[in-house]
């Protein structure tokens, strides 16, 4: 079957050329630091984000928890948004593995956290309180509609955190999408933060892997934490080669995914009973079904996604609201696929 898979940009499959690069990769034992392809990927990514060093990790979740373990210790506090991926979708790793106490503040619709709220949340030095150690931000912001957060906000938030002796980690799972949407380089977005995690296995189209970047000293400490969480991989160049290929070939084309997302959103808004939550800035489209307009409250996101599936279109209902759904564009989805999806959606709600 020829499914149009809009559940996530994680579903992309390596192209023949990427597989070719993987097959040809020169490898070594990366736990000895001897895999030339892993080393190359780490250097390439560090250079793209203007940082000293990079560390190849198995996943975005591993990259975020390794960063948290490296920045903060047990009982320390981490400030982050209530819709942060790290808070919602990483199995409680910050608390469970790092022993870090999450202090949750409201994310604005644009993915930012109000700077005054951050300032107010930072603890004074008092034996009763945890130590405010880390601020975690996310760009693009997944649950805030894939919002691309501008460098000026990241600069201001980082300056605030630094003035209180805190570090800043950026979950940049989709950092390149943000950079392209904002028309800036990734390094402009990361110039004020202390660490950033970027996923290769999302819109960049690699099958596995993320890179955590920071100063040389930070990455040296992160290497130990990666080992502790079982992330010391051996001939990892086989998969790192896909990341190198992705950085060389799949970054600029993310703009196409943004155009396709806008096309999808415009089409959805023209279907009575469906509404996009906010105009997509990048490749994530969040939509809502209006059950009153449908005249049937049982017609929720699960029902719609069931009908789409029967027509070979896949989308994810959001667990948190029965009438909301997410659709994601990526390199395995064409403009023609978007048009077919819209036809199927129109029929599904009729
Ligand atoms: N996000 C996935 C799901 O986990 C929700 C998706 O389909 O969007 N940070 C952000 C902002 C993410 O969106 C994700 C994955 C991660 C981190 C974790 O990456 P992985 O899945 O590689 O552990």
Describe it for me?
With 350 residues, the chain is of the alpha/beta class. 42% of the residues lie in helices and 16% in strands. The chain contains 15 helices and 13 strands. The chain has a 7-stranded mixed sheet with strand order 2-8-7-6-5-3-4, sandwiched between helices. A 4-stranded antiparallel sheet has the order 9-10-13-12. Helix 1 packs across helix 11 and helix 3 (60-71) crosses helix 10. The longest helix is centred in the last third of the chain and has 16 residues, at 254-269. The radius of gyration is 21 Å and the shape is globular. The model has no long low-confidence stretch (mean pLDDT 97).
What keyword list fits this structure?
13 strands, alpha/beta, binds ligand TLP, 350 residues, 4-stranded antiparallel beta sheet
Helical stretch tally: 15
> What characteristic shape results from the CA principal axes?
globular
Uncertain regions spanning at least 5 consecutive residues: none
First-residue to last-residue Cα separation = 24 Å
- Summing up helix and strand content along with how strands pair, one would put the structural category as alpha/beta
Write the layout of secondary structure elements.
Elements: E1 4-5, H1 16-24, H2 36-48, E2 53-57, H3 60-71, E3 77-81, H4 85-88, H5 93-96, E4 101-105, H6 115-121, E5 132-138, H7 151-163, E6 167-171, H8 175-182, H9 186-190, E7 195-199, E8 210-214, H10 216-228, H11 237-249, H12 254-269, E9 274-276, E10 284-289, H13 291-294, H14 301-310, E11 313-314, E12 316-317, E13 324-328, H15 335-349
Helix pairs in contact: 1-11, 2-11, 3-10, 12-15
Residues 8, 10, 59-61, 85, 89, 138, 142, 171, 173, 199, 201, 210 line the site of ligand TLP.
């Amino acid at each position: 079957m020829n499914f149009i898979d809009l559940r996530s940009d994680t579903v992309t499959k390596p192209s023949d050329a990427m597989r070719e690069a993987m097959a040809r990769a020169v490898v070594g034992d990366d736990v000895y630091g001897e895999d030339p392809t892993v080393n190359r990927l780490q250097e390439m990514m560090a250079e793209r984000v203007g940082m000293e060093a990079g560390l190849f990790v198995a996943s975005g979740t591993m990259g975020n928890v390794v960063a948290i373990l490296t920045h903060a210790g047990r009982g320390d506090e981490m400030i982050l948004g209530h819709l942060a991926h790290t808070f919602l979708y990483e199995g409680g790793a910050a608390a469970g593995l790092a022993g870090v106490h999450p202090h949750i503040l409201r994310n604005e619709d644009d993915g930012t956290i109000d700077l005054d709220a951050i300032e107010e949340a930072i603890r004074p030095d008092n034996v009763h309180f945890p130590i405010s150690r880390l601020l975690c931000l996310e760009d693009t912001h997944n649950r805030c509609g894939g919002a691309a957060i501008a460098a000026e906000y990241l600069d201001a938030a980082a300056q605030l955190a630094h003035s209180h002796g805190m570090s800043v980690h950026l979950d940049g799972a989709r950092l390149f999408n943000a950079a392209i949407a904002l028309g800036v380089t990734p390094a402009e977005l990361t110039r004020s933060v202390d660490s950033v995690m970027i996923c290769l296995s999302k819109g960049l189209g690699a099958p596995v892997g993320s890179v955590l970047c920071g100063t040389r000293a930070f990455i040296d400490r992160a290497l130990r934490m990666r080992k502790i969480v079982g992330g010391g991989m051996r001939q990892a160049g086989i998969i790192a080669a896909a990341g190198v290929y992705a950085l060389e070939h799949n970054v600029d084309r993310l703009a196409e995914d943004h155009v396709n997302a806008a096309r999808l959103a415009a089409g959805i808004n023209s279907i009575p009973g469906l509404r996009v939550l906010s105009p997509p800035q990048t490749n994530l489209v969040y939509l809502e079904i209006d059950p009153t307009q449908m005249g049937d409250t049982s017609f929720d996101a699960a029902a719609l996604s069931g009908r789409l599936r029967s027509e070979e279109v896949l989308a994810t209902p959001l667990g948190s609201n029965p009438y909301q759904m997410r659709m994601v564009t990526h390199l395995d989805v064409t403009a023609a696929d978007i048009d077919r999806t819209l036809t199927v959606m129109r029929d599904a709600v009729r």
